[in-house]
Design a protein that fits this description.
The structure holds 2 protein chains of 2 kinds. Chain A is mainly beta. Chain A contains 7 helices and 21 strands. A 16-stranded antiparallel barrel of chain A has the order 5-7-8-9-10-11-12-13-14-15-16-17-18-19-20-21. A two-stranded antiparallel sheet of chain A has the order 1-2. Chain B is mainly β.
Chain lengths: ~450, ~220
């Protein structure tokens, strides 16, 4: 069997099924409990972060300003702070969360697909996720989301990492399983849960490369930043080294027409590597962004009091550039000579993005070049562009969204996809959404690119 | 032309003091000098706050650098270890004061300090019911720790004079028997930046000074 042709001919839509699958959210109730504050302190609508929430995240999940004063559920000290004066003749002190640092998110959906055999269906409780996070002393923090249950099956660990934050914020480290900061836009923080960002996830099917920034990669990342003049905006940078294992598309496609191909890939990977980490090569990436105006990237210049009204306004423009390079396996050769090469594909993903806030309107987007180079001489390129607009209406619990994406591979027809969404915060932790996906004429005639509509309810507690 | 010599008007004369006045003045002055100084002393009161709320934990408000030696109290000051805590958490003392460290818990405790002004003393570990003493010979901040229970922490603030006060739960303080004069009033807190104000204490009565500490 010509593996490459099979991949090329069949997989596109099946992969996109995975692309449309809900991924764990990043709204995390334990932080609301820790500070006795509303989700809306940090979120425009969960899980989308406002500027303050981004600063909170950048500070290692600590509030800008006087974090200690804002904590309502006190940490349990592991050594009093004065043990710092004893070091190195004693152990540096720390602390662990004193309260409940777990949260749950539950999602239920009803989908309509006129082109499917079953045109409409409820998924019951389609997803249950376990979220936890907190700080350990002054410098360390942890974060995780675990899919307990998704689409009728047990899930797995989405992200799980430990992070060190230097007091200057110039240098921070996280290790574990995380979405790289080189991802053009965080799939976990997107407002519309119906469709993932194609820039993050779109594979190079004929190369058999299912790399995606999301949901996670395993490795180590260093990152840091410096606020701009007048403590406005500022620079953020990151660099990381990760395994570069296949993304979640592989697991999602196990029951698809690609299942045989995936099985062959897994078998080849087991023979040559460590599961889906097929080689000893490590992927690396780097990224830099600059925010012009708005709240400082670490929250300086903001209010000392937690604000929940009109706190999404942050007139600013952020420009970002990134580069990710990896080596993955590929089937090379043809017919009887076809073989799996663990280092058969050297690929990169590079792009530029922008993110602009103008009062109640957030417009962001960018361009990404996907480039895959197979050792047998094949080269595949794909340009993906995206622009999305979110608007906070005068009724701030009501937020419409429109996203336009264009995929232009040189190995398949170009196509567009438009996502429309309306989020309604029934409560700060209860969000009802109505989504619709409409694909252009050139889109593959496969289920994920059918015109589909969905209503969903998400609850966080 | 006739010239009349007009005598100047007779200058108004002050009433003559009684002859006994010098004796009266001498007697009053002598009596005043024998009065205790508190009778010629004021009180400094006020509040210490942080972000508009009473400072927590307690702060120490004190007069800085009086050029005078003040002897320490003859009786030791007591710091206890109760329910896995030093009690009190903050203890201001005059330099030269002896502190007696008790152990009223059912477990062993240790007292040591990494503070150089107290020579990084380590009193060792001792069981319930026993006590150990240490005399603080130099001014400064001394943090107390326990090697057995790392979460335990307390402070001794060694000062050069007895004019100090620890804040109460509502952040208020009172320093009594302060001789009249102008002084530098300071605030110490284990977490917040120190603060300073100048205060003029009257011969009697009260003067109010408030502080808003910064991070």
């Amino acid at each position: 069997m010509n593996t490459t042709a099979a991949l090329f001919g069949i997989s596109l839509g099946s992969v996109a099924i995975w692309l449309a699958t809900a991924v764990p959210a990043s709204a995390i109730p334990p932080f609301a409990r820790k500070y006795h504050t509303s989700c809306l302190t940090c979120h425009v609508t969960p899980p989308k972060l406002n500027a303050f929430g981004r600063a909170f995240k950048n500070r290692g999940y600590r509030m800008p300003g006087d974090d200690e004063e804002l904590i309502k559920e006190k940490q349990v000290p592991i050594g009093s702070p004065s043990w710092k004066r004893v070091w190195p003749e004693g152990t540096w002190p720390s602390s662990i969360p004193g309260g409940n640092y777990f949260g749950i998110d539950v999602e239920a959906n009803f989908e309509v697909n006129p082109s499917a055999a079953v045109t409409n269906s409820f998924d019951g409780i389609g997803e249950v996720g376990l979220l936890f996070g907190g700080t350990l002393g002054e410098s360390f923090s942890f974060y995780s989301d675990i899919e307990l249950f998704e689409n009728g099956s047990p899930g797995g660990i989405g992200r799980l990492f430990v992070q060190y934050s230097h007091p200057s914020n110039y240098f921070n480290v996280r290790i574990g399983q995380f979405e790289p900061r080189a991802a053009p836009f965080s799939n976990h923080l997107r407002l519309s849960r119906f469709t993932g960002y194609l820039m993050n996830l779109y594979p190079t099917v004929p190369a058999g490369n299912f790399f995606g920034f999301s949901p996670n990669q395993k490795g180590v990342e260093i990152w840091g930043g410096k606020e701009g003049p007048g403590k406005k905006g500022g620079l953020m940078w990151s660099a990381g080294v990760v395994n570069g294992n296949f993304g979640g598309a592989v697991e999602a496609l196990e029951d698809s027409p690609l299942s045989d191909l995936i099985e062959e890939l897994e078998l080849a990977a087991d023979t040559h590597g460590n599961g889906l980490d097929v080689n000893s090569e490590k992927d690396f990436y780097f990224q830099a962004s600059y925010k012009i105006g708005g709240l400082g990237v670490f929250g300086s210049g903001g209010s000392d009091v937690l604000v929940q009204a009109k706190n999404w306004r942050d007139n600013s423009l952020t420009l970002n550039g990134y580069y990710y390079r990896g080596v993955t396996g590929a089937f090379v050769g043809d017919g009887p000579t076809e073989d799996f090469s663990p280092n058969g594909n050297t690929f990169y993903r590079t792009g530029v993005t922008f993110d602009a806030w103008i009062y109640d309107l957030n417009v962001f987007g960018g361009w990404q070049r996907n480039h895959d180079s197979i050792i047998d001489g094949r080269i595949y390129r794909n340009d993906i562009t995206m622009v999305e607009a979110n608007y906070v209406t005068p009724w701030p619990w009501l937020q419409p969204l429109v996203r336009f994406e264009r995929v232009r591979p040189d190995f398949a027809p170009s196509f567009t996809r438009t996502t429309l969404s309306l989020s309604m915060m029934i409560r700060a932790n209860v969000v009802f959404t109505v989504d619709g996906v409409v694909s252009g004429k050139q889109a593959p005639e496969l289920r994920p690119f059918d015109d589909r509509f969905r209503m969903g309810l998400r609850v966080y507690f | 032309m006739s010239t009349s010599i007009v005598s100047p008007p007779r200058a108004r004369q002050l009433p003559r003091p009684p002859r006994q006045l010098p004796l009266v003045l001498l007697t009053v002055g002598l009596a005043l000098s024998l009065l205790p100084t508190s009778a010629l002393a004021g009180t400094i009161t006020g509040k210490v706050q942080y972000k508009g709320r009473p400072i927590k934990p307690e702060a120490v408000v004190y007069i800085d650098s009086l050029n005078k030696h003040f002897p320490p109290p003859s009786k030791p000051v007591v710091i206890d270890q109760v329910k896995m805590k030093f009690v009190p958490h903050v203890t201001p003392i005059v330099v030269g004061t002896t502190v007696r460290f008790l152990n009223s818990d059912s477990v062993q405790h240790n007292v040591f300090t990494p503070s150089k002004v107290a020579d990084k003393f380590n009193l060792g570990t001792w069981p319930s019911g026993q006590s150990k003493n240490y005399t603080f010979k130099r001014p400064g901040e001394v943090v107390l720790l326990c090697k057995v229970h790392p979460e335990m922490e307390a402070y001794v603030v060694v000062l050069t004079n007895p004019f100090f006060s620890t804040t109460t739960r509502d952040g208020s303080f009172t320093i009594t028997a302060v001789p009249p004069g102008t002084y530098t009033l300071k605030v110490w807190h284990e977490k917040r930046k120190p603060a300073t104000q100048t205060v003029t204490v009257p011969a009697s009565g009260n003067v109010q000074v408030n502080f808003n500490l910064r991070r």
